[in-house]
Amino acid sequence: MLTNWLKIALINYKKNGLSTFINLFGLTIGLTGFMLILMHWNDEESYEKWNPKKDQIYAFQSLYKRTNYYGDNISYPLATNALKIIPEVQDFVIFNGSDIGVKMTTKYTTTFQQGGFTSSESFLTFFPFKIISGHAKDALKSDASIIISRQAAMNLFGTINAVGESLKFDDKNYIVTAVYELPEGNSQIKPQFVFKPVEGFKHDKEQWNNFNYGCFFMLKKGASPATFENKFKDILTLRSSIDARGTGMTTEQFADLHGPNSVQLIPLDQLKLHAKASWFGAGDFRTIMILFSLSVLIVILSAINFINLKTAEASQRAKEVGVRKAIGGTKRSLMLQFFLETFIVCLLSYFLSLALTELLLPSFNKFFNKEIELKDWHIYVYSLAMVIVVTLLSGLIPAFYLSNFKAIETLKGNFSRSKHGVWLRNGILTLQLIISSFFIIGGLIVHSQVKYMMNKDLGFNGNQIMMINFNESTPKAWLKYERLKNEISKINGVEDISFGESVAGTGRRSSSNMDYEQQSINAENSAMDYNYLQFLDVKLLKGRWLNPHLASDTINTVIVNEAFVKKFGWTDEQIFQREIKPGFDEGKKYKVVGIVKDFNLRSLKYQVEPIMFFHYKQSSWKRFNVYNIQVKIKSDDIEGTVARLKKFWQTSEEPGYPFDYYFLNHKFAKTFEMYQKQQTLFTILNAMVLMVALLGLFALSSLMIEQKLKDVAIRKTLGASDRILVFGLTRQFLWIAVIAVLISIPICYFLMNEWLKDFAYRIDMPVWPFVVSFLVLLGLTFAVVSIKAYKATKVDLIKYLKYE
């Protein structure tokens, strides 16, 4: 029996070669997209899975309810009090530096080592890397201890047996206490060396408001994160009561103004993709879910093609079913046969998609900057499960439909002239075109939003501005900047020089509360050189720039942006009359002397934040954080000037350090990369959907028009013109396309409006993508169907009318 089923299946595959090809092609494309996106999602979810203590470790995240802002920082006293007060806490680790690069000197070599990490002494308790030399216990207990990776040990000492060796950087000596092997699994925490920021810890030990650290808490086994979050509120209240003293505010008022108001623990293995804020960069789970949903839609679209084509082929198999039933065939055996035919096509598509996925994987990895391999058994299982689902979806309706034919009716030959199945086919085709319309509209809106962001006036000019980082740990960093400024200005091709703490396109930010009497806002603060805002071509709206000839401009004067004024709810005149007390410089009052037009330092996804600019000498500690020098280069010889700067840097300034630089406009452009990739992916998916849908439409229209050839012959004999015949054959499909677009419009409007809400700077929902979708889908439907319809008008009249 199985042999006969297979023979019948092969005969029907050959007889309906176009339909078979379209089903194979559509399912292969759909499953390939599904596998690639699933691998991307699975890779993002796999971070920190290697850690055996991941079920007990949680990242600390805070919420400032007044501004609905999620923070990833904690102060030293908050962390230590959590260990003392909350019994569920077993341990904590704090850190305030990652990917640090320093020039290390050993008795063997001097080399620049990247990938450093500063942490408290519990680091190896939380991240139990395999120790290949030394011991994990108390490895960071001493202030002079340092632990290094296998790679760092080989770079510095030429051997992994480096325990007890000494090295020096930043004018301090360290002893290697352990050498570890970095984990093979995906991890955001892969330091090449780890040491304690001793001076920072000493300074911040009692500073409740210095939120300088990231933090992980380890809870005791069985402890609930919700219990920790609830009990931590008492510690926040304690902090607010201490800081509210002398302000004239109650503890509650201070907490409401300054926050944080609550905390949330994020499981370690969910940090990469599910955290609202993360020290190591939060992932984009929503985009992955959108891409995954779209890939599933393409598979569903392919399944719809399968259903439509199988039901359309029904007339060709009606007599086969009638004969089978007449000689005793059961409905169950017929359904199993049709299921087998569907499963063979789906299984073949599965193997083809595996091969296509392997071929596309290198390009996919390059696109997402990953190193995914097709070796995870989950991918095979999930994709095979999808094949089974598609088999059920694609096989159940046609199998049920075909097995229900009445033997007498089909053997009489009346089936092809009946209306049986028309509503089913039309309904499924409508659903297919609704999905196609959604992709056309969505793709055009995504394109418009990305184009809007790319062309938006950022409020500053980063062209030809070269940002050069230098060694932050240099004592009296501001003096180094001033010396560099003087020397670099003499290099041919340099037009201007400045410094700014907050740099466009980077994540480096410093923020604090800004107070006036009983009012308080949270705002960024940025130290800078006198000319920095003019250097960036920022527009001054009111007041004046900082002036190097006025002593007050290195004491207590600041420039703010429009957002700063708006957040306080003041007029421009009011802010010039009031003095602000910033949290980063407690007890000192600052006077606003200028207001600049808002300009974007971050991605256009976010609103421009309130920010205060002031000279780096104005704050006793900000001047130590001068970490870059920015050089504006003349346009006539950019490459030559860069070469001269590099030579100066490597020979005179920072021997042994890499020449770490980038251009501001290029750096800010990288903030668009994610959205450009989304646009590219949406365009690819759009093309895939249209291709699958149009091929399915062509095959379906071919089968349905084939059934009407006798009607065409009769009407042509009675004098109908080719134009009337073509329109008559295509009219049904055009109406389906119109209905599909009209149904898709409200669905697409809602979904794309939700997507646009993610952007602070976004387009108004345009009308033209909906109009274009209507016209394109109508035009493509007519073009595809009319090809077959026109061929039908050339039918041989004698062939179809000789028996009438």
UniProtKB/TrEMBL annotation:
Chief localisation class: membrane
GO molecular function: transmembrane transporter activity
Pfam families associated with the record: FtsX (PF02687), MacB_PCD (PF12704)
Coiled coil: none
UniProt entry tagged with the keyword Phosphoprotein: no
GO CC aspect terms: plasma membrane
Keyword annotations: Cell membrane, Membrane, Transmembrane, Transmembrane helix
Protein name per the record: Antibiotic ABC transporter permease
